[in-house]
Design brief:
Blueprint: E1 6-14, E2 17-22, E3 25-31, H1 33-43, E4 48-52, H2 57-71, E5 78-81, H3 87-95, E6 100-103, H4 105-109, H5 112-121, E7 126-134, E8 142-146, E9 151-156, H6 157-167, E10 171-176, H7 188-197, E11 202-205, H8 214-220, E12 224-227, H9 229-232, H10 238-247
Parallel strand pairs: 1-4, 1-12, 4-5, 5-6, 6-7, 7-10, 10-11, 11-12
Antiparallel strand pairs: 1-2, 2-3, 7-8, 8-9
Helix pairs in contact: 1-2
Length: 259
């Protein structure tokens, strides 16, 4: 049985507001996260992803409140990432309504965090978020970054993905820093490379700018497609993306769109 491709709006949240930039820079306000999540749920989104892009101690309470309020109104899986450093952070986010948790910088700093989360909560809860940029300094040509794309590591992106899966990551959220916010299309080479090594679902992120950009990402190997700007600006709806995928022969979940 062919699994349906998921369409996932992404809300990059800073200080309780949705923001968006280009290549992770020049962030601008895009609206209230709960209102946007409600809109995308009504449009037929399969999941919602929240990424706290400036997660600091003083804003963590804001994130918990946003997740709680969203979970009360949006009845689809909710993934939350940003600033997750311990299994206790995961427990608190799950307690306020998150279904899955994304980890990135903290797992790179201490890879055992992946094992700990998977052992306690199960691989289905754990999404490894990879912010990837091209680099001539790694064997694959791709390197991972941390701190919202601001800090480049020496870690080969494909090697890190393999290790994280072995440790218990249940999904890979693969975001191309080079394509992020450019609206020029997904990095198909990166998606294909991740698909080739991965036995867990791959979520493609970064670069969507037109309804025609989504199907090539799926054909390159993505199990789900994630986008932000095209949804926040009203340029595209979730339904329009699903219609385009279906027209290309890709199986999507159909659900009654709420009024």
């Amino acid at each position: 049985m062919t699994l349906a491709c998921r369409v996932i709006p992404c809300l990059d949240v800073a200080a309780g507001r949705v923001v968006k930039g280009v290549n992770f820079e020049n962030l601008r306000d895009m609206g209230d996260p709960v209102e946007l999540a409600r809109l995308y749920f009504a449009q037929g989104a399969d999941e919602i992803t929240f990424l706290d892009v400036t997660a600091t101690v003083d804003q963590r309470a804001t994130t918990y409140d946003v997740v709680r309020r969203t979970a009360e109104e949006v009845f689809i899986p909710l993934t939350v990432g940003g600033g997750v450093r311990t299994v206790d952070d995961v427990a608190r986010l799950l307690a306020v309504g998150a279904d899955k948790i994304g980890v990135n910088s903290a797992a790179i700093a201490r890879p055992a965090l992946i094992d700990e989360i998977a052992d306690r909560f199960g691989a289905q809860v754990l999404v490894l978020s990879l912010d990837v940029t091209r680099s001539p300094d790694t064997a694959s040509g791709f390197v991972v970054t941390t701190h919202g794309g601001r800090t480049r590591t020496q870690l080969d992106a494909l090697d890190w993905a393999r290790e994280a899966i072995a440790r218990g990551a249940g999904e890979l959220l693969v975001n191309s820093i080079d394509a992020d916010g450019t609206k020029q299309g997904f990095d198909l080479e990166l998606i294909g490379a991740m698909r080739e090594l991965s036995r867990v679902p791959v979520i493609a992120s970064g670069g969507a700018g037109d309804v025609t950009h989504f199907a090539p990402a799926v054909h390159a190997g993505a199990d789900a497609v994630l986008a932000a700007s095209v949804f926040h600006s009203g340029q595209l709806t979730v339904g329009e993306v699903k219609d385009a995928l279906a027209a290309d022969g890709i199986v999507v979940r159909t659900q009654q769109v709420m009024s």
